[in-house]
Amino acid sequence: MSLTVFSPAKINLFLHITAKRDDGYHNIQSVFRALDFGDWLTFMPAAADAPLLTLTGADTLTANLHDNLISRATTALATRYPDAATPIAIHLDKKIPTGAGLGGGSSNCATTLITLNQLWQLNLSTDELLAIGRTLGADVPFFIFSHAQQADAHALGIGDELSALSLPAARYLLLFPQAHLATKTLFAHPELNKNHALLDNINARYLEYGERLEAGFYNAFEAIASKINTQVATALDYLQRLAAITNTHPRLTGTGSTVFLPIPAHIDLSELTAWQLSAPCPCVVADSLYPASENL
């Protein structure tokens, strides 16, 4: 018997770097939002004499499948709970572009932790899963959090200090420039602002960063990504032209290369379809993952 589980993408409605840490990482402030666009993972019991993990569908993602976050999540749980771990086969139906700022690998990792916790009957709490997730990647805790609590979160620390937000449902046009932006290169860029002041009362300020970006809200990597990569610049320019109609602000998510534009309710399907057909690169329309509170 198999179990197929959704593994969502995320976007950053804004992303600020607030300080460099003593451990070499950076503190951030951001709002993460999970989307109804994502990958699918199918879990199937394997034969008793099979390897711990048989992973298919991920061959093009990493040269060594043991480096894949699905594999690392499986190993992390099996190492901690060897008596409960039984051979498992996982198939990945990949929809989220890699290296796109959408958290695809981290989402797959979190989905694996959550699902194996169920299948192996580990009965780990959300806090215990979050602790394991932190050892595997900075974005992994958000996807555990979004599954257990809320699909929108205010993020601090390295992105692992999370608090739930109640934001209105929204639709987005996401463009996927065929470009890979090295995170290390972006963090090392001399124009990167690494000391943005912490902003307060984020839950009540959605109108300042949700559809539009008011003063003080932005993605710290956007200007740099656009400057060093013409495909990102072209995609942002395309969305900026549409913004005259939507009255919303396009922006980069994560460290890129995906850019997106909030789509207000008055834009009908035919117009949105025409925009997709005219886009300079692959694109998709996605909604916020769960119905959210209308109260700000």
Tell me about this structure:
The structure is a single chain. The chain has 296 residues and is of the alpha+beta class. The chain has 2 domains: 3-164, Ribosomal Protein S5, domain 2, CATH 3.30.230; 171-287, GHMP kinase, C-terminal domain (Alpha-Beta Plaits, 2-Layer Sandwich), CATH 3.30.70. It is 30% helix and 25% strand. The chain has 9 helices and 10 strands. It has helices spanning 69-80, 104-119, 126-134, 140-148, 183-188, 206-209, 222-228, 230-246, 269-278; strands spanning 3-20, 26-45, 53-56, 88-93, 152-156, 161-164, 171-175, 251-252, 259-263, 283-287. A hairpin with a 4-residue loop joins strand 5 (152-156) and strand 6. Mean pLDDT is 94; it is low at 292-296.
Map the helices and strands.
Layout: E1 3-20, E2 26-45, E3 53-56, H1 69-80, E4 88-93, H2 104-119, H3 126-134, H4 140-148, E5 152-156, E6 161-164, E7 171-175, H5 183-188, H6 206-209, H7 222-228, H8 230-246, E8 251-252, E9 259-263, H9 269-278, E10 283-287
Parallel strand pairs: 3-4
Antiparallel strand pairs: 1-2, 2-4, 2-5, 5-6, 7-9, 7-10, 8-9
Helix pairs in contact: 1-2, 2-4, 3-4, 7-8
- Evaluate the radius of gyration: 19 Å
End-to-end Cα distance: 43 Å
- Shape category: globular
Poorly predicted tracts of residues: 292-296
Task: Kindly provide the name of the CATH class of the largest domain.
Answer: Alpha Beta
Domain unit count: 2
The percentage of residues in β strands lies in 25-35%
**Main beta sheet, described?**
6 strands, mixed
Average pLDDT for all residues: 94
* Helix content range: 25-40%
Secondary-structure element order, N to C: EEEHEHHHEEEHHHHEEHE
Total beta strand runs: 10
EC number: 2.7.1.148
Pathway: Isoprenoid biosynthesis; isopentenyl diphosphate biosynthesis via DXP pathway; isopentenyl diphosphate from 1-deoxy-D-xylulose 5-phosphate: step 3/6
GO molecular function: 4-(cytidine 5'-diphospho)-2-C-methyl-D-erythritol kinase activity; ATP binding
Family: Belongs to the GHMP kinase family. IspE subfamily.
